[in-house]
Design goal:
Blueprint (H helix, E strand, L loop, with lengths): L17 H23 L4 H18 L6 H12 L11 H15 L7 H11 L22 E4 L7 E5 L3 H18 L7 H15 L6 H16 L9 H7 L1 H13 L5 H34 L7 H11 L9 H8 L3 H13 L3 E4 L7 E4 L18 H13 L2 H19 L6 H23 L11 H5 L9
Antiparallel strand pairs: 1-2, 3-4
Helix pairs in contact: 1-11, 1-16, 2-3, 2-4, 2-9, 3-4, 4-5, 4-8, 6-7, 7-8, 7-11, 9-11, 10-11, 13-14, 15-17, 16-17
Length: about 475
């Protein structure tokens, strides 16, 4: 069996970009959507907290280590300076894991160095942590053969991976660190491809006695963050990897044995990133839906059991709908009372009924219908009065609605830019969208909005000449 690193020119990787031509634009759209949803949420601290927590916990779970979520959450709350009812107590282990992750996704423009990697390794393995087998902490491995082996009774052991010998580690790491720092911003290398290559190249070298997978995933996050520092804190790549742990190890193993062609690994990495972004968008969208629902029903009189039921539905606890018997079980009331409570929620516009009636009756949240958010395309080149009027309308909007309009505008602009041959009208619209984004940015940067300002409706803004174009 030969390994990829045995070739003297092993880092001269190649991969087929055919699948990536479809994947990459979809990924960048999702990154933009995620950032827009986070801005619509107003305060994205909670989203960042949830994503970072998931990333840390799942990265360790991939290696078979189950962390105490509450300890990690407590460390995150402390490091981020948040106010949260964290029930756990932070430990040296959880503090170290959090510090490593925050360094990777926050200090994205700091160069990768040997000392930075050694620091991450020390944070992974605090001095007071009990270990059955001692390891060299904060330094590269210096002895032994590094292999990943599996075996079953009555079967010969299978070597899935073997790392380069120790006498090559130092030079391989010098070359890797140099490449990583110099490749940032390389126009010939897409940032997502670069992140996949960085992850693969580091775990192939396997420079440490332990912790290579977790540090390799942190390096991948660092590479992604250098290209998109806004959204990197909002999704958990490790959570996506953990959902396909077997596929992850198989893709890495195949790449180790497949010469310098990394098509399978790079495409797997991109698909997993796409899924991770989708999960993050769904999570934040669910939070926004919940926030809007309670804004719409803030004056609705509800009892504690009804509040609990609605929150469970909004959190997705009953994807097939809530029945009277399930309501009775968690609210600890009779089925007759449960039916009365649910009927009252229907009459108050909180729930809708579906199903065949009787025992099959189910209840789901009724979301208020709202005007669709339209992109802002406006020609203000020779119309200062129009520019002033549009700015006035945008200033009156709450930050969440302004972020939604920005998201819609960027989405429409991206769609036009992806057209092979946009029409004359589309090119005209593109100029209007760019102008609209500049106005939105002007309002955001000036911080002109305040909670007590009147809220303009979308219809009022659409009434402005050249305002929101209906598509």
């Amino acid at each position: 069996m030969s390994w990829i690193w045995e070739d003297t020119d092993w880092t001269n990787f190649g991969w087929d970009r055919e699948e990536l031509r479809v994947l990459l634009p979809a990924i960048y759209r999702q990154q933009g959507q995620l950032s827009g949803l986070a801005r619509a949420q107003g305060n994205s601290d909670q989203s960042a907290l949830n994503a970072l927590l998931e990333n840390i916990v799942q990265s360790s779970a991939i290696e078979g280590e189950n962390l105490d979520r509450e300890s990690v959450k407590s460390s995150l709350v402390n490091k981020l300076g948040l106010v949260d009812e964290a029930r756990g107590r932070s430990t040296d282990k959880s503090d170290g894991l959090v510090e490593m992750m925050l360094d990777a996704v926050t200090n994205v423009y700091e160069p990768l160095t040997e000392e930075r990697l050694f620091k991450w390794h020390r944070q992974l393995f605090p001095e007071n942590e009990f270990r059955i087998e001692p390891i060299d902490v904060g330094k590269y491995r210096t002895e032994g053969v590094m292999q990943v082996v599996s075996s079953r009774p009555s079967h010969m052991p299978v070597v899935h991976f073997q790392a380069p010998p120790v006498d090559r580690v130092n030079q391989e790491m010098v070359d890797f660190i140099t490449w990583f720092n110099e490749s940032a911003g390389d126009p010939s290398l897409d940032p997502i491809e670069r992140a996949a290559l960085a992850h693969f190249r580091f775990v192939t070298i396997h420079p440490f006695d332990d912790g290579n997978g977790r540090i390799g995933r942190a390096i991948g996050d660092l590479a992604l963050g250098q290209a998109d520092p806004e959204s990197i804190r909002l999704y958990a790549m490790s959570a996506g990897i953990a959902k396909d742990r077997k596929g992850y190890y198989q893709a890495l193993e195949n790449a180790q044995k497949g010469g310098a062609n990394l098509s399978g690994w790079v495409n797997w990495f991109a698909r997993t990133l796409d899924k991770s972004l989708g999960l993050a968008c769904e999570r934040i969208d669910q939070t926004l839906t919940k926030t809007r629902f309670w804004e719409q029903h803030r004056e609705t009189h509800l009892n504690p059991e009804q509040h609990k039921a609605l929150n469970k539905l909004l959190d997705g606890k009953f994807p097939d709908g809530l029945s009277a018997s399930k309501y009775a079980a968690f609210a600890q009331v009779s089925k007759a009372t449960a039916t009365r409570h649910l009927t009252d929620l229907v009459e108050k516009g909180c729930l809708k009924i579906f199903g065949g009636g009787g025992r099959s009756t189910r209840y789901a949240v009724r979301n208020q219908e709202s005007m669709p958010i339209q992109p802002l395309s406006v020609d203000i080149t020779h119309d200062a009065a129009l520019k002033k009027r549009v700015l006035t309308e945008l200033t009156a909007l709450p930050s969440s609605r302004l972020a939604e309009i920005e998201q819609a505008t960027r989405g429409r602009l991206k769609a036009i830019e992806e057209q092979p041959k946009p029409s004359r009208l589309e090119l005209q619209e593109k100029r209007g969208l760019i102008a609209g984004l500049k106005l939105i940015d002007q309002v955001s940067q000036a911080s002109m909005r305040s909670p007590d300002k009147p809220v303009s409706t979308i219809n009022q803004i659409n009434a402005v000449k050249g305002g929101f174009r209906q598509r």
